[in-house]
Write a structure and sequence with these properties.
mainly alpha, rod-shaped
Length: 64
Amino acid sequence: MPELNEDNFELIDRNKDAMLQRNKLKYLEDRVATLEKSVGALNTKVGSLVSILAQVNNGDNNAK
């Protein structure tokens, strides 16, 4: 078995840190994707509500 020296431990620590950073980035990218989907769904629902309110308001204006 090869002897581990300080350089080996530094390399192992850098690799662990790089892997941790990649995992954090992937997690954050997934969260952003989820938020984008949620915002898109909310925009669709708000658009529908605005459309319905416009129709109701036009109906009220025509009734007068």
